[in-house]
């Protein structure tokens, strides 16, 4: 209390002044319109160096401004240190710091991950032939990361005979990865270190690896192979993305049986897939190419390809098959037809069974079916609740009748199971232990708000039992609604630090995600993007009408494209919110989507529209772009989070947004920019720092309600 009084006295006598970014007007002419960007100068000319970890600013005033914002944030939040510490301790108390994962068999080894108290990263271990054998540590991430503030593993994989461990790693927070190799017999790294790659690679056999090199724009461009014993001199180019497909992402997968590699080119609408059998030296060949939002996902089983697709307007998706000898579309046959009310999201094949993972387009809840490939018998996998998150882990042996999966709910921690595909008998392997947590104290339900055009918008809601619905509850409402990425009802233990303080936590399953199917996604993109924002506000008003909360008691939370959502709704109805947290927010939409040199821009024109070529797209995006629609009005308390090496949403977007907000807003509410100089889009990679950052966010939320 004394510390707080001292702080208040200091503020009264010496009020902290927020940074005031200088204005350097830059005229931007586009489609016969001219707009002025006063803060374009915050994009430093050396920004590409930042993604390599070199913070050599070309313009010192950019660095000075960012540092002044960070210093201001630190000063404002200084008196919340005790609150941050308390929340940090609470979150930590619900974590088993010393833990070991359940063994996972691959080849002759059983693989496990161990976490230890005080260490930020897992230790990768294995046992030979038996789970009772002696434990061998083959990769200690804590030791490997000693010289780095950020250490993000992309793909990790031991080759088939268990002699080499390959991995991609990022040490700045950007999207640029390096491929490295460890000789497990010698327990030392080889000299292999291939830089500026995507995170994806595949073992072809025991000594050859396929990987993807990035182009100057930071997008995957070239698929190469390398022999681990011969090094870079053995590099061969296997596939180069055509210039005509520069606007597409490139990814690579291997079928579970290890017989084929697939290359996926996709921009959210068009799809091009090439493939290569791994028992042949034949080059990659085209499997399918389609436009107009036709999607494909392909796997292999026993001489046939299985194709998950929305071909022929089957927008809930179906599965088709064709023999490997004849892949022409005329030879495709329907194996599992489209269901009217079920959206087929993913599939997997093991032995003679296909696992089909659906979402119910009416309820948004998952439904899982096991299908006999030979007889077409379809059996439903039942659980004690309908509102669950099912995660298929699978099995390294594609001929196995046993698969592994995990199951969790918003109030029930994850449990790991083995499932016998013939009997559907489940064996519990491991229940996640969450100390200082009692699931019986909490309640979760799924509600539905009705949009202005009659759509039912699902809402997952969690609160403490006994909470009165009296319009007095603070509420945290999470939203995303882009790229067809639905928000599944997972267990997030950290949120209970707010729930235990009387908060209600809700997730708005708005259009732009795929919670209610592929059309739910389509109706929240491009020229229908505003549905995403309006759905979120509809959910806000519904929760107010139902007395879960009230106007001015809602904290909005969204990250990346969810940060765009936050920026948009803050402009549209600021008075409904107490505060907004916008993590790595995509708020400068017109400028970013008009810049083809940025890594994500061309592949995402099918998500947002192309404001370079299309005037209607430009005008529509301009009408909701958060940065361009800031106006003189009162805004809620706002915390913007960003990282200097973020390639996906570059640091200057939230920096410009905050600068313009501070210039135009008419209130005295908090406006803070928290910029990390050692991380990127995904934030802290160290687990204890991640907890500290989350405690900081929650302390900001609580401060806003004081």
Automatic annotation (TrEMBL):
Which residues are in the Peptidase S9A N-terminal domain?
Answer: 19-429
Source organism per entry reads Paraphotobacterium marinum
Instruction: Check the UniProt entry and state the signal peptide residues, or none.
Output: none
Per the record's keyword annotation, is Hydrolase included, yes or no? yes
Q: Which SUPFAM superfamilies match?
A: alpha/beta-Hydrolases, Peptidase/esterase 'gauge' domain
The family annotation for this protein states: Belongs to the peptidase S9A family.
Please state what the protein is called.
Oligopeptidase B
EC id:
3.4.21.83
Q: Which residues form a coiled coil?
A: none
Q: What is the lineage of its organism?
A: Bacteria, Pseudomonadati, Pseudomonadota, Gammaproteobacteria, Vibrionales
Keywords from the UniProt entry: Hydrolase, Protease, Serine protease
GO BP term, example? proteolysis
Q: Name one GO molecular function term.
A: serine-type endopeptidase activity
Record keyword Hydrolase present: yes
Q: Where is the Peptidase S9 prolyl oligopeptidase catalytic domain?
A: 490-704
């Amino acid at each position: 209390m004394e510390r707080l009084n001292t702080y208040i006295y200091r503020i009264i006598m010496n009020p902290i002044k927020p940074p005031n970014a200088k204005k350097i007007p830059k005229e931007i002419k586009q489609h016969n319109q001219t707009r002025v960007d006063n803060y374009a100068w915050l994009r430093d000319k050396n920004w590409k160096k930042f993604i390599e970890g070199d913070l050599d600013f070309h313009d010192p005033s950019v660095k000075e401004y960012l540092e002044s914002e960070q210093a201001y944030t630190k000063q404002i939040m200084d008196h919340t240190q005790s609150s941050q510490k308390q929340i940090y301790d609470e979150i930590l108390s619900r974590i088993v710091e010393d833990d070991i994962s359940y063994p996972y068999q691959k080849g002759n080894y059983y693989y496990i991950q161990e976490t230890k108290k005080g260490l930020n990263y897992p230790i990768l271990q294995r046992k030979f032939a038996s789970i009772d054998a002696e434990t061998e540590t083959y990769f200690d991430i804590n030791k490997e990361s000693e010289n780095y503030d950020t250490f993000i593993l992309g793909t990790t994989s031991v080759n088939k005979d268990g002699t080499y461990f390959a991995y991609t790693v990022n040490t700045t927070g950007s999207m640029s990865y390096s491929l490295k190799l460890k000789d497990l017999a010698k327990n030392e790294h080889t000299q292999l270190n291939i830089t500026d790659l995507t995170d994806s690679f595949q073992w072809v056999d025991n000594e050859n690896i396929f990987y993807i090199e990035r182009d100057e724009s930071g997008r995957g461009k070239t698929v190469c192979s390398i022999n681990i014993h011969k090094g870079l001199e053995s590099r061969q180019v296997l596939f180069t993305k055509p210039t005509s497909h520069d606007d597409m992402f490139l990814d690579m997968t291997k079928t579970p049986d290890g017989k084929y590699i697939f290359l996926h080119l996709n921009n959210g609408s068009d799809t091009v897939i090439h493939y290569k059998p791994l028992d042949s030296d034949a080059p990659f060949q085209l499997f399918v190419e389609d436009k107009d939002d036709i999607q494909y996902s392909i796997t292999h089983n026993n001489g046939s390809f299985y194709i998950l697709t929305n071909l022929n307007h089957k927008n809930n998706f179906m599965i088709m098959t064709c023999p490997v000898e004849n892949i022409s579309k005329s030879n495709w046959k329907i194996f599992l037809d489209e269901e009217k009310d079920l959206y087929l999201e993913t599939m997997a094949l093991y032995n003679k069974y296909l696992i089909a993972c659906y979402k119910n387009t009416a309820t948004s809840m998952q439904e899982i079916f096991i299908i006999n490939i030979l007889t077409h018998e379809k059996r439903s996998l039942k659980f004690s609740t309908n509102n669950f998150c099912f995660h298929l882990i699978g099995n390294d042996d594609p001929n196995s009748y046993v698969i592994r999966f995990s199951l969790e709910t918003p109030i029930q921690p994850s449990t790991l199971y083995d499932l016998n595909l013939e009997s559907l008998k489940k064996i519990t392997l491991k229940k996640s232990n969450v100390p200082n947590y009692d699931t019986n104290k909490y309640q979760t339900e799924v509600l539905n708000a009705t949009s202005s055009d009659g759509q039912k918008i699902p809402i997952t809601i969690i609160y403490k039992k006994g909470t009165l619905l009296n319009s007095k509850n603070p509420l945290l409402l999470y939203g995303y609604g882009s790229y067809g990425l639905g928000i599944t009802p997972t267990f997030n233990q950290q949120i209970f630090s707010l729930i235990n303080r009387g908060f209600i936590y809700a997730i708005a399953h708005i259009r732009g995600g795929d919670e209610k199917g592929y059309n739910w996604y389509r109706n929240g993109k491009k020229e229908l993007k505003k549905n995403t924002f309006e759905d979120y506000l509809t959910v806000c008003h519904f929760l107010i009408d139902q007395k879960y909360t009230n106007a001015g008691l809602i904290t909005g939370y969204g990250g990346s494209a969810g940060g765009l959502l936050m920026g948009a709704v803050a402009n549209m109805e600021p008075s409904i919110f107490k505060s907004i947290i916008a993590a790595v927010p995509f708020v400068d939409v017109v400028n970013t989507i008009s810049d083809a040199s940025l890594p994500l821009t061309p592949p995402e024109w099918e998500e947002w529209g192309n404001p370079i070529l299309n005037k209607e797209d430009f005008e529509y995006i301009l009408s909701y772009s958060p940065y361009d629609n800031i106006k003189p009005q009162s805004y809620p308390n706002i915390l913007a989070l960003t990282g200097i090496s973020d390639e996906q949403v570059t640091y200057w977007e939230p920096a410009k947004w905050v600068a313009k907000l501070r210039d135009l807003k008419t209130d005295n509410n908090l406006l803070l920019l928290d910029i990390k100089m050692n991380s990127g889009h995904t934030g802290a990679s160290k687990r204890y720092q991640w907890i500290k950052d989350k405690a900081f966010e929650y302390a900001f939320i609580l401060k806003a309600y004081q």
